[in-house]
């Protein structure tokens, strides 16, 4: 087993390996396989096969620069989508840790950490003070 690992490590020397783009392609291939189990679309088999071949080609490629550029391109193209999901996740975490109160006077939204008991909130906009339980 160790010997096999060593051989594989030797084989991978100077080769590109797995990156985010490959992981995305693999995930996509798996998703297509599942779709294909539910609704059989003959062309999907070919798509999955081509995707897997491409992933392996990228993994074992010695053109590290070229593969690196592909990965950058992928990250560039998906940055907006990925940042949308991360910001949603952060928002959810933020709501768990904080209350959002509205100032009764001016309607300014104020973020208060949860679990602090009764507190006096000072509105940053109109300086109105009000009591809240957090
Ligand atoms: Zn206010």
Q: Which runs of at least 5 residues are low in confidence (pLDDT < 50)?
A: none
**Please, how many helices?**
4
Total individual domains: 2
Report the principal-axis shape.
elongated
Q: What letter string, H or E per element, gives the SSE order?
A: HHHHEEEE
Structural class from helices and strands? alpha+beta
Strand content: 5-15%
* Average pLDDT taken over every residue: 92
Describe it.
- The chain has helices spanning 2-12, 20-38, 42-59, 64-97, and strands at residues 98-102, 109-113, 118-122, 129-133.
- The protein has 134 residues and is of the alpha+beta class.
- It has 2 domains: 2-97, no CATH class; 98-133.
- The strands form 2 sheets. Strands 1-2 form a two-stranded antiparallel ribbon. The chain has a two-stranded antiparallel ribbon with strand order 3-4.
- The mean pLDDT is 92.
- Bound molecules: zinc ion (ZN).
- Zinc ion binds at residues 103, 105-106, 108, 123, 125-126, 128.
List key phrases describing it.
single chain, elongated, 61% helix, alpha+beta, 134 residues, 2 domains, two-stranded antiparallel sheet, binds zinc ion, 15% strand
Summarize the structure.
The protein has 134 residues and is α+β, with helices and mostly antiparallel strands. The chain contains 4 helices and 4 strands.
